[in-house]
Specification:
five-stranded parallel sheet; five-stranded mixed sheet; single chain; alpha/beta; 525 residues
Length: 525
Amino acid sequence: MTGLDTARILCVEDDPGVARLMEKRLAREGYRLDLAADGLSGLSMAMSGDYAVLLVDQRMPGMSGLEMIRRLSEIGRLPVTIMITGAGDERTAVEAMKLGASDYIIKDAAGGFFSLLPAVIEKGLNAWRLAERGRRMETELARAEKLRAIANMAGGIAHDFNNLLTVVLGYIDMTAEDERLDPSLRPMLGTAAAASLQARDLIQKFTLFSSGGHPVMRRGCIRELLADAAHLSVSGAGAACELDLAPDMAEVFADSGNIRQVINNLVMNAVEAMDGGGVVRVSAENRTIRGEADLEVGGVGPPPGRYLRVAIRDTGRGIPGEHLEKVMDPYFSTKQRGAEKGMGFGLSTAYSIIQRHGGHIAIDSAVGVGTTVSIHLPAAEPAEPAQAPPPAPDAADVSFAGRRALVMDDEEMVREVAARMLDKLGIEAACVADGQAAADRYAEAMRAGRPFDAVILDLTVRGGMGGEGAIAAIRAIDPDARAIVTSGYGDNPIMKNHHAYGFMATLAKPYDRKELIDALRRLFQ
């Protein structure tokens, strides 16, 4: 596997005797060297390989060490470099350092410089480790910024599309229930409704990517979830799944649907990497991160604390180094486009979900060896005594006839379809386009002695007061106002904790007639 402990060292030395002695001396310290016998071949190997340290002799046939350093520096491929030069040639060594070399060693006739090699190598590796850690942290920050920008765009698309789907689903429902409808048309309406629901599922994938979706965090042990999701993902794929789940797995706060989606994506990726065969190993263990020594993959990871670490390992093709830092970028994929291959959202969605859970995800891979994806989820604190669940609400039917409702939404088509659905239920509807108009209309109805029985408020209004401001203004007029909050942004905090903001029910867009009825029943029960 790649990482800090597998740093590669390239030695470019034209004297085979000296090269063998250097290789033997460093092997005693646990280092492994790749050897090149001249500057040209050394340049080629340095350009094509991912080396942490370069040991290069100055005097070589074909191309000098100084020229090799100059060329690698010009193309930005110069690793931590140590110049090896003869006595009296310190000026060349200084020139090499001006070009980017980190250090130099002067050969001596007695061969004493061999004993200096391990210390100089370790110094170079320490410099490489620091640079690598900084680079990985920069990459992590850049990825987070990129995902945040694209997530905002995806969330906006999802919001607008959800408004349109609300209109489509509403009119399909009402048309299907119209007694005047030609019976032969009902199957087509059913197909249209099914296609609309599939479109809703597609938009939910955008929402999952943009914010982790609408997570419902519950405390618990995810042992069964991991086992079920992993086995289901390899089912029928020709691959096997091995589980190694610690008996004392810590509980975590997680959305089971979101985490199931992450495991499904990662295990299916592992199966594909092994061309449908092989064994996917899924493990889970408790880990405590105290500092950098406990971190994985380049010294970048979660902050200190207690975690549940989940790892998905395969022995597949592995990910080339040039792709490893891009695999969690949205739309990045090395696969062919098409129905089977998708659009490269799997890993970026997993990344967003795990971040949403306060966790960390990292990938370690080597071509021909395999890939390990590590997930850290914060462990829950010791549990408090359980409390009895609240009694279930009365499921008795509620009459809507003769009631009045106020609908606030900045999309005219959404207002119109909501009003028509309410009218079908026997509810008189009034519609306004923003929160201030909703508060004014509500006050006017109170003064006229014809108060509204229900208020349906959209959270997001372009250029005007939204649902949060509207409910505050309406509650100031009537503390007993009954309000439903609706939004195309399923991840909005108000949608998750609506009671704290004065709402009695939620209605996530897109919604159909049945979901509208369910929300109204919760309001009036």
